[in-house]
Design brief:
Blueprint (H helix, E strand, L loop, with lengths): L16 H16 L5 E8 L2 E12 L4 E2 L5 E3 L4 H14 L9 H4 L7 E5 L6 E4 L6 H6 L13 H8 L12 H9 L16 H13 L3 H13 L20 E3 L6 E3 L19 E3 H12 L3 E2 L2 E2 L3 H7 L27 E3 L4 E3 L14 E5 L3 E6 L4 E6 L2 E2 L6 H12 L3
Parallel strand pairs: 7-17
Antiparallel strand pairs: 1-2, 1-16, 2-3, 4-9, 5-6, 7-8, 10-11, 12-13, 13-14, 14-15, 15-16
């Protein structure tokens, strides 16, 4: 069984073992306080794992420990995988960043943009230009999430049954039709709004490739890279390794089990936005593909230039995420100096980031408090995995970045 293992002593990789111990103790304290069930943290330099810690439980009630082969719902860490899938099709000439989405999904042919009002009094106008594939890759298409509760279009999503981004019982193709029937928040390509765009991109991949999204991922990414546990479902053999999902209690007294992704059996809705499960070994293989600019162990999926394009800032005007209003995931101090590429955030001004980060550092996180990043300036990759959906924002990722920064000695 493929399993992540420490490969080199921290000192050989330019890391301070005592600082890494402080990192472990910091997050162990979260477990002791009942704020996390358990966690896995992995730090690698030059592709070699120099620090690997598992602590606490993957299932508290069953008393099962977190282990290197534990499986995790990675939620929005699916988005960079979807971006890589689209880039594979682009390199083959079957898809272009400047393709109108309507060329592949005709329901988007007559997109309209929100103008004023709300509910039945909502006024819209025809979009000045088409939604392009690049807009889906960068969350600049004008789409949104129904759970934001900050814009009249968010409310229209909820009225259409999209509180959780998918109408009950719908598949990906059916869900995309609902998205296309709703107005855009803004003209495509003019602003950034974290949204259901990766689901739309997933459907584009299905139409262009002629394959279901899970099959395309398995045949074109997971198989070639040797990511044995990555996918949209868990088998009977894998089920015992899947971590329980927890949420913060409403009264703030700790965590409790909550429903998660329907992973036992192939899901009807294949979400390119947040549907994946993976182990730490899988995440490490994927981050290594990106760190090595498209090649891993002799298998090349993308050219170096394509990975460079993926991990460059594509926000309008070269702005950072903080520039695009006060909606959730936008107006947060952690977004200072951070732009967005294709499915990943990217540091564009290290002097402005709230936590230390090298120029060009890129990665993304998931709603169950999972994250990864690649720091090209320090040849460093990091992943942190747990299973807690928080009710409010927290500082765990900020703390992690600071503690990792403190551990790098060269």
């Amino acid at each position: 069984m493929a399993q992540l293992r420490q490969e080199v002593d921290p000192s050989e990789a330019g890391l301070d073992a005592k600082a890494l111990d402080r990192l472990d103790q910091h997050f162990a304290h979260y477990v002791d306080e009942g704020r996390l069930p358990g966690f896995l943290v992995c730090v690698a330099r030059g592709g070699r794992v120099a620090h690997l810690t598992t602590h606490g439980r993957r299932d508290i009630a069953a008393g099962l420990p977190v282990e290197p082969d534990t499986l995790w719902r990675i939620y929005s860490m699916t988005k960079p995988v979807t971006a890589v899938a689209a880039l594979l099709l682009m390199e083959e000439g079957r898809l272009s960043l400047d393709d109108p989405v309507a060329r592949h999904l005709p329901a988007f042919a007559d997109a309209r943009v929100y103008e004023s009002g709300s509910g039945t009094d909502t006024r819209t106008r025809p979009a000045a230009g088409p939604i392009l594939v690049r807009h889906l890759m960068t969350h600049t298409a004008g789409l949104t999430f129904g759970f934001y509760h900050t814009h009249p279009v968010d409310a229209l999503y909820r009225e259409a049954g999209l509180e959780s981004s998918v109408p009950p019982g719908a598949n990906l193709a059916e869900t995309i039709e609902v998205y296309a029937s709703l107005p855009l928040q803004f003209e495509p390509g003019t602003q950034w709004n974290y949204s259901v765009a990766s689901n739309v991109l997933g459907r584009v991949i299905e139409v262009v490739s002629g394959q279901p999204l899970d099959v395309f991922f398995a045949e074109r990414i997971f198989g070639p890279l040797g990511m044995p546990d990555a996918g949209f479902e868990v088998t009977g053999e894998q089920a015992g390794r899947l971590a329980e999902l927890y949420g913060e209690k409403e009264d703030g007294t700790g965590i409790e089990p909550i429903p998660g992704l329907p992973l036992h059996g192939r899901p009807r809705f294949l979400s390119g936005s947040g549907g994946m499960v993976a182990g730490a070994y899988d995440v490490h293989r994927f981050t290594e593909l990106l760190r090595r600019r498209g090649e891993l162990d002799g298998t090349r999926l993308l050219t170096p230039e394509t990975v460079d394009l993926m991990t460059a800032n594509h926000l309008p005007g070269g702005a950072d995420l903080r520039a695009f209003g006060s909606r959730p995931a936008h107006d947060e101090p952690g977004n200072d100096g951070v732009g967005f590429g294709f499915g990943v955030s990217v540091v564009i001004d290290p002097d402005r980031t709230i936590a230390p980060a090298g120029l060009g550092t890129y990665g993304w996180s998931g709603v169950a408090t999972t994250t990864f990043w690649v720091d090209p300036t320090r040849d460093l990759t990091v992943q942190f995995l747990t299973q807690v959906r928080p009710r409010t924002s927290h500082t765990m990722f900020r703390d992690l970045k600071q503690l990792i920064h403190d551990a790098v000695t060269d």
